[in-house]
Design goal:
Layout (H helix, E strand, L loop, with lengths): L7 H34 L1 H4 L12 H9 L7 H11 L4 E4 L6 H15 L10 E4 L3 H14 L7 E4 L5 H8 L4 E4 L1 H10 L10 E5 L1 H6 L3 H10 L5 E6 L6 H6 L6 E4 L12 E7 L5 H11 L4 E5 L3 H14 L5 E4 L5 H13 L3 E5 L14 E4 L6 H8 L9 E7 L5 H8 L5 E2 L15 H10 L1 H20 L13 H7 L19 H9 L6 H12 L8 H26 L17 H4 L8 H14 L7 E3 L6 E3 L14 H53 L7
Parallel strand pairs: 1-6, 1-7, 2-4, 2-5, 3-4, 5-6, 8-13, 8-14, 9-11, 9-12, 10-11, 12-13
Antiparallel strand pairs: 15-16
Helix pairs in contact: 4-5, 5-6, 8-10, 13-18, 17-18, 18-21, 21-22, 22-25
């Protein structure tokens, strides 16, 4: 058998293909030579470019940009692109929504194109993003503008099958990745090769460097080749020299595009604050949503528990606008669905944690509402940056407590122009749609809402306790009981970590909190279980009943949460709290096994104060807590009695107790409502008095 004969037609086609391939190669080579010359001549620096077509970039990239309707450069792009295209390292800061993404994606495509990178050359560029959502968004932009190049690009963010990622990753020329998952591949994927890498980008660099990613990023950077271009971009610039040194930037060009401008936030962004007591927040938030039904709004809270409570409670109150919520404890697929759904809706309210605060490009957001005071000015800037993007108008409102008013000074110091929504020297007008009584009703009828309200409260107070800036966040000034009432609860749960003046075990309290994370439902659940619904000293039957009833709710949630969290593959989406003032030494006791002396002390204290004499106890070796040993009854000693009678007796006693609890609950709610009524009337009178005073003729010296 000979070789298969090739017909003249096929041979012609192959020859034609070869010819056009050679022509294409030659054309590319000519273009690359011309581009290299323009770049080395520094032509781009002579006349600052206005349009993408004026840059020294390939026709393939230019076409991709034009097809995506990117024609003119934004300020940061005008500054960064000529420098990045010439291969220099960059440290870039520019306002939110100013177009930083293209400032590094275009240079990546160009660098690989000019190096004649092929799919067989392996990894050429790496973009690190702090969150999966941001990575996905960057990847989409890259796919859009890079479609005419023959390069391969991959998204490495976890949440997907590691094996399938492992197979694909070795073929990728450009990767957009979150640090945790990338490091996992560097460790475990043997075929993954990065020794030729030319460009490294850190998007939202300050966050990647500050918030718990440091070690991961260190490990990644250490493994990458030293000869590379490195670019860092953020809306708020990091100035930590050590952080930058770790990334081994070579004489980076530092650009702070909007540093000279009067404001650190977009000029077309209208920023206001409402200073109101904590106990009025829910009323005012709901009223605000009701007053802006035809708009698209993001409402930020600092923990996912607050997000969940606001979302679930407001859903039941049906404000008349679609409500959504997004936080770090949801499954990745769910977050994606919510993200796209919110993008599509013409009007909607999205309750969110700071997982949505950075980099995400939600189109046409009218309002950013900050339901609680952000941790610092940078977080404020990133949150409000979800609106007023690329020259569009936008509005932001910050709900702030009177005790947090120092934050306003900090904001103004950092050139954030924020003004009061209502005149500061007068009392606030009453909320138009108060929801307190509805929340009360919800809490008493719906165990889930009550559970979420308790958790939201604990989590909020904890977040205030953990914030490092004590001139703004003063946990001791929080009106916790009033806040509890405003959430619909009949009282505040016990909060072990709220500092008390005579607290002897402060370090232990601190340790309890340090071991928790504001966005970590599961971790704090254990604590909340023991703190809020299982007060250790409660002894009445009602207390016991209350404990039993709520434990069911908790345990149901607990198992759901366990299911939910077990499918999450990596943890870097969880917002990690930044440098709060809990020192390592302070937090140590949580994990330290108590000394024998300490255990003996605890044993003694317990037996003297509380233990029944002669009872048999065991002591937990780790915590030193004493438990009474209840002996099992033996077959012979256990009196079974009549099962039906026992059951009837049990049901009867439980029913009596339930009724007692209901009566007690109703009385407490009546009392709370009465207090509210009195308060409201007092305020109305005050407002009336003030308005009369305003209308009264003024005396003048003239
Ligand atoms: N040259 C341009 N012309 C028109 N639109 C642009 C241009 N560059 C970027 N955009 C659009 O502006 C929006 C914001 O861009 P981008 O997300 O890159 O901003 P950013 O500065 O990274 O924001 P953040 O700091 O919030 O992450 C996007 O919708 C993007 O498509």
């Amino acid at each position: 058998m000979g070789l298969p004969r090739v017909g003249p037609k096929v041979a012609n086609r192959k020859a034609h293909e070869r010819k056009s391939k050679t022509e294409r190669k030659n054309k590319d080579k000519d273009e690359i030579d011309a581009l290299e010359k323009r770049i080395s001549d520094g032509i781009q620096f002579i006349t600052p470019p206005v349009r993408f077509s004026e840059l020294a970039i390939s026709t393939k990239t230019l076409k991709g940009l034009e097809d995506a309707h990117f024609l003119e450069l934004t300020d940061i792009q005008k500054c960064a692109l000529p420098i990045a295209l010439s291969g220099l390292d960059i440290l870039g800061a520019a306002k939110t929504g100013s177009g930083k993404t293209l400032s590094f994606l275009v240079p990546i495509l160009e660098r690989l194109y000019r190096s004649k990178w092929t799919r067989f050359d392996g990894l050429g560029a790496l973009v690190l993003s702090p969150t999966r959502e941001l990575a996905l968004q960057t990847f989409e932009v890259l796919r859009n503008i890079g479609r005419n190049h023959g390069l391969s690009a991959g998204l490495v963010i976890g949440g997907k099958d590691l094996k399938s990622e492992q197979e694909a990753i070795s073929r990728m020329n450009i990767l957009v990745a979150t640090p945790g998952r990338l490091l996992q591949h560097m460790d475990q994927t043997t075929v993954f090769e990065w020794s030729q890498l030319k460009v490294l980008v850190l998007d939202e660099a300050d966050r990647i460097l500050d918030l718990g990613f440091a070690k991961t990023v260190d490990a990644i950077v250490k493994a990458l080749p030293k000869e590379r271009q490195t670019m860092l971009f953020s809306a708020t610039q990091t100035d930590s020299i050590s952080a930058l040194a770790r990334l081994s930037l070579r004489d980076p060009v530092v650009m702070s595009v909007h540093a000279q401008q009067e404001n650190a936030t977009p000029d077309q962004l209208e920023q206001t604050f409402i200073m109101c007591p904590l106990s009025e927040k829910m009323d005012r938030l709901f009223s605000f949503i009701k007053a802006h039904l035809k708009t698209k709004m993001i409402v930020f809270f600092s923990s996912c528990k607050q997000v969940r409570f606001a979302y679930e409670a407001f859903c039941r109150l049906q404000p008349g606008v679609p409500l959504m919520h997004i936080h770090g404890r949801q499954k990745q697929s769910k977050r994606m669905t919510i993200f796209y759904e919110f993008c599509r809706k013409p009007s909607a309210v999205l309750f969110a944690t700071d997982v949505a605060a950075r980099g995400l490009d939600f189109p046409a957001v009218d309002w950013v509402v900050q339901g609680d005071c952000p941790e610092d000015v940078d977080t404020y800037i990133h949150r409000v940056g979800r609106t007023a993007r690329i020259g569009k108008a936008g509005n932001a409102v910050l709900f702030i407590l009177p005790s947090e008013k120092h934050m306003l000074t900090l904001l103004r110091e950092k050139r954030v122009p924020i003004k009061a929504m209502y005149p500061e020297n007068r009392p606030l007008p009453p909320a138009k749609r108060p929801v307190r009584s509805q929340l009360e009703a919800l809490c008493s009828q719906d165990a889930e809402i009550k559970y979420l309200a308790q958790k939201a409260l604990v989590s909020y107070v904890r977040s205030i306790f953990l914030h490092s800036n004590k001139s703004v966040f003063k946990v001791e000034e929080l009106p916790i009981d009033e806040f509890a009432l405003s959430l619909g609860l009949s009282g505040a749960p016990r909060l072990r970590f709220v500092p008390r003046s005579n607290a002897k075990n402060d370090s232990r309290q601190l340790a309890d909190i340090a071991s928790d994370d504001s966005d970590s439902d599961e971790a704090s659940l254990e604590e909340t279980k023991s703190e809020t619904v299982l007060p250790k000293k409660s002894t009445s039957k009602i207390d016991k009943m209350f404990r039993r009833k709520n434990l069911d709710v908790y345990s149901e949630h607990y198992s759901k949460l366990r299911d939910q969290t077990s499918v999450q593959e990596d943890d870097f989406l969880t917002i990690k709290r930044k440098d709060h003032d809990i020192q390592a030494e302070e937090s140590a006791p949580a994990n330290v096994t108590l000394s024998r002396k300490d255990i003996l002390k605890t044993k003694k204290k317990y037996s003297i104060k509380t233990g029944p004499r002669g009872a048999h106890h065991v002591f937990d070796e780790d915590t030193g807590e004493a438990r009474r040993v209840v002996p099992f009854a033996s077959e012979s000693t256990f009196d079974h009695g009549n099962a039906t009678r026992l059951a009837e007796e049990f049901v009867a006693s439980e029913t009596t107790q339930m009724k007692a609890i209901d009566r007690d609950d109703a009385a407490r709610q009546r009392e709370a409502r009465r207090a509210l009524r009195i308060n409201r009337k007092r305020k109305e009178k005050e407002v009336k008095r003030n308005s009369h005073a305003d209308k009264a003729p003024r005396l003048s010296n003239e």
